[in-house]
Amino acid sequence: MKNRRLGRSSIYVSDICMGTMTFGNQADEAMAHRILDMSYEAGINFYDTAEGYPVPPDVKYVGRTEEIVGRWMKTKPRDAIIMATKVSGPSHVWFKSPCRNGMTALDRHNIVSAIEGSLRRLQTDYVDLYQTHWPDHGLAYDEHMSALDDLVTAGKVRVLGCSNETSWGLMKSLAASDKLGIARHETIQNNFSLNNRRFEDELAQVCRQEGVSLIPYSPLGGGVLTGKYQNGQWPADARFSRYREVGPRQAQMAYRFVNEKTLASTERWIGLAREAGMPVTTLATAWSKQHDFVASTIVGATHSDQLPDIFAAAEITLDADLLKKIDAVSKEIRYPMG
Which residues 6+ apart lie within 8 Å of 175 measured at CB? Predict the structure, then answer.
């Protein structure tokens, strides 16, 4: 694994990060620990979780993922692990957070409550990267950046980041930190894949100019790029099959990922991967890693059998000819996810 710096911080991470949002739901603890062990043995030192995991969000099992990860982390030297987690943002987004009875926000009270819960479940006295899971654009950035900075000063958090943020929001947060002379967001964790290249429109330039690293999630388009939703298939155990049944807002999110355009582009990605002599999972992961504004690509798995194709991307650099073919598909089928 190659290692890259998170923003302008002192932390270097493997350029593949293992995400954990299925642990405790689609993947039981034994399988989760096997996935984590195989990732560690492959050279991955960076792991991402959240107080609201696993998904789909449910009060019946909220926090279970951090507990599973925490028990695994006790089997490894703590300094060898770069652990990232998140505080839930406001619950007026596309789903209601199961944390704190849905009364989540990015004010000081909720941030303090969230970090204490995460540290307890992870069985550690600090996290390396602490992220806001989604923003609250109605709350002054001075307030929550000050609360987050206090966690850095207290030694409970090393580096700060945001997730699902906009160009405006990222710049507002950086401006607040500059004005107050406090810790800033070194990373942004947003959706970025062959099926969703919107990050390149504006946010990539913000990252380049401000020294913020993208740690993209869903490089496989939420599993769509594996081809499992092709030809009208909705596998019973797949994430978006479940989202269709949870509620109208989750169903809307499912159809954002699985629609006529995403399935058409996925067919093209599968064809290009076949021509290049690699699985589409490897192609998609390698493509995500091959951007100057990306520090580490967050992957995920529900079974250890999925890992070899992901890990294979660590040694692959896509050539210029293949990148041109990829860009041509993106121009032909614009913004498949809207």
Answer: 141
* Catalytic-residue membership of 255: no
Task: List, for residues 254-282, the tens digit of each pLDDT value.
Answer: 999 999 999 999 999 999 999 999 999 99
Q: Which of 53, 130, 141, 243 is catalytic?
A: 53
The confidence score (pLDDT) of residue 92 equals 65
pLDDT, tens digit, 9 for 90 and up, residues 110-126:
999 999 999 999 999 99
pLDDT confidence of residue 102: 85
The CATH fold assigned to 3-223+283-319 is TIM Barrel (3.20.20)
**Which pLDDT band, with edges at 50, 70 and 90, does 251 fall under?**
confident
Give the distance between the most distant pair of CA atoms in the chain: 54
